[in-house]
Amino acid sequence: MINRNFFMLLSGQFVSQIGDKLHMIALSFWVLKTTGSSAKMGAVLAASLIPSLVVGFFSGAFIDRYNRKNIIIGTDLLRGLILALFAVLFYFELINFYMILAMQVLLSVNAAFFDPAIPSVIPQIVNEKYLAAANSKHQFVNGFSTIAGAFIGGIFISMFGYLWVFVANAISFLLSAFFECFIKIPPLQKDTTEKRGEAGIISDLKQGYQYILSDKALLILLFMVMIIHFFVGSMEIFMPVIANAISDDGARNLGFFQTAFGVGTVIMAVILSIKNISGKEKFTLFGSVFLIGVLYIAASFFAGNEAVITGLYLIMIFLFGCCIICAGISFKTLLQKKVDNNFAGRVFAVVGSVGNASIPGAMIAYGFLLEIYDFQDLLMISGLVLIPLSIISFILYKEAKHVRATEVLSKSLT
């Protein structure tokens, strides 16, 4: 069930994420148009990702130590002000490429604090039995924003120009901060927000990594996070290669494939927001990864005329999107239920950095491998790796949970 606090959080996310998608589309096209350099466009995209990835290994200590509501509101306000300043400079034609890189770095650093704070806050404002449904609704907002932002972006740019896209994005973050002001977040059971100086932050950071490394079940979940994001990255490389291989009009097919993936993620998020999987997250997580392996193996056998093969790949990519969302929502919910919320910021910050590193890592690896292997052979190999990996990880996770439960019981009896 959506309570008032969660509704305000979703409303802010919806507004800011649509604005952000518009911004990235406009910025990418503007850089490419004005510089004529795809390398510079890639540098802008990298500047929006790499700082968040690096800072994420440290930002969690601040999220757990200080007021999470203030962090969420403050980072949205800062992003809104940065974008408003960018729009003013753009209007006076004072923007250059290096200023754009600096802006993206600042936005990315803000995201390193904002993004892990959201899944850390959700267990504080949503009843535990509704966590999976809440995460599904949050994922639906993310997916719908991506599709809507991509659809609206081109139209908005052609109708109003680049300047008003940047203005709209600045307003979207300020509106998001406004919605977040009305969220009431209960305090943590243990007071970890007291300021203790720089030494305290370092101590919190060490405790966070000790907490993660000492829990085998948690490490397995982090490994699954890496695997899920890695194969999302692999699919980003497979789609254009397959699109070109099966048709002379590869660009058209790529558009169909990306749409199928997006629709799969949105539809599954809607289904899981209605059909609560509370208590079944473990089976959904490992089962989804197993099914991705099955899909990869099945796709390696696709044959027939162009229309048949295209249809089969569309179905496969749609189902792949469904499985990715099932796995993503499941691991997030398992982490929220398992992790002491006093450590949630540190855990989710590491999760974000691991995930952000895995996607480009997969793109580089699969880009290289596809120079050596046929894509169908590589699909087969990937599937044959994923299936036993999901089974072994599931067994190890069950054993780790059992050992942990036994330790907790022993401590309670002594």
Helical content stands at over 70%
> Any idea what the CATH architecture of the largest domain is?
Up-down Bundle
The total beta strand count reads: 0
Along the chain, the helix and strand elements come as HHHHHHHHHHHHHH
Would you mind describing this structure in some detail?
It contains 14 helices and no strands. Helix 1 (4-35) runs antiparallel to helix 2, helix 4 runs antiparallel to helix 7 and helix 11 packs antiparallel against helix 14. The longest helix is centred in the C-terminal third of the chain and has 39 residues, at 375-413. The chain folds into two domains: 4-180, Growth Hormone, Chain: A; 210-413, MFS general substrate transporter like domains (Growth Hormone, Chain: A), CATH 1.20.1250. The chain is an all-alpha fold and 414 residues long.
List the helices and strands and how they pair.
Layout: H1 4-35, H2 38-47, H3 50-65, H4 68-91, H5 97-125, H6 131-160, H7 162-180, H8 198-213, H9 216-246, H10 250-274, H11 281-299, H12 306-338, H13 344-369, H14 375-413
Helix pairs in contact: 1-2, 1-6, 1-7, 2-5, 3-5, 3-8, 3-13, 4-5, 4-7, 5-13, 6-7, 6-10, 6-12, 9-10, 9-12, 9-13, 9-14, 10-12, 11-12, 11-14
Overview features:
414 residues, mainly alpha, Growth Hormone, Chain: A, 2 domains, 14 helices, 84% helix, globular
